[in-house]
Structure formats: C-alpha cells, structure tokens
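1st attempt posting a full record on here, be nice pls
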Amino acid sequence: MAQTYVIVPTCAASALAAYCQRIGHRREPVLRGLLESYIDQQEARAPGDRLTHVSTVIWHPDMPVGRHNPSPYATRLPMRLPPGMANAAREVALLLPGQADGGGGYHDYRPRQLADAAVTALASEVAFTDDILDGLPPLLTQRAARGLFRLAVAATATPPRKGASTPARTPIKRL
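the predicted structure (as tokens):
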C-alpha cells in the first residue's frame, strides 16, 4: 500500500468520518472502497459524461497558505492505496484546460485529480456542504464542468486576453 494524501474541503472529511462511524468501519478501507466504485463507474461512462465534484471546478478549498496559516476550509486527508489505484482514479478524474498532467506548474493551478476522485466518490454516497458549496449542485458531468470553467474564464479574462480569443467585431452603425 502506498501512503499519500489529498487536500479536501473540511466538510468532506467530516462527512467521511461521520459515514464511517455510522457504518462501523475504519476510514481507510471505506475510502478505498469508495474509490474502487468510483473508478468502475467512471470507466463505464463516456469521458464527457464522467462525474466531478463542483469543488474541483471552483477550486475549493484554496490551497493552504502555509503550515502556520491553514485554511479553515481545507483538511489534509491521508490515504493508503494499493498499487495502481491512485493512477486509475486520476485517469478518470477531471483535468481542466491548461492544467498539466504532471506535478509541476504554478501551485495554484496544479491538477487535483486524486482529490477530485476522492471527493466525487464520497459525494456519490454521502451529502456534504459548507457555506461556499451551499446551494451549488454537488456533482456535474465533466462536460458541464469544462463549460462552467470556460464561462468563468471568459467572464474574468483581461481585455488583451479577450481580444486574443474572440474574433474582431464590426461596429454597428446607428441610424
């Protein structure tokens, strides 16, 4: 078993703990079982129809500022997974446009595919929310998630970036 961890919303970690207590099992085997089911279900779907959790799309929680200044929304969730399970989960998880497959890149825009897999797997079994996620649909198809992401980029892009991505418009003549 390989030891790893992911950063998840605190409400997800709390929901996982409550779920484990309710069914009378330890966290690690429950999380492995949820991930195993997640992988099987995702592989059975077309790529655009695979599910993702809304927290992945809105980048919640933000990455912790530092060890001495943790986010109240973020919890480090350790997990021990059999060989190949983490890679299998990453293969079917959401990868947003512009995110690299590797671990490099700017820390705020690294892919969080294993965290997405864990949170999506949990949300498929147990409901959880916090004041940021409240009112949002928890699960989206990856197609819808990419569309939401493109909409957010278009709405927040700077004028030079907008000009590079949209065709020139002819001014409308007023009569």
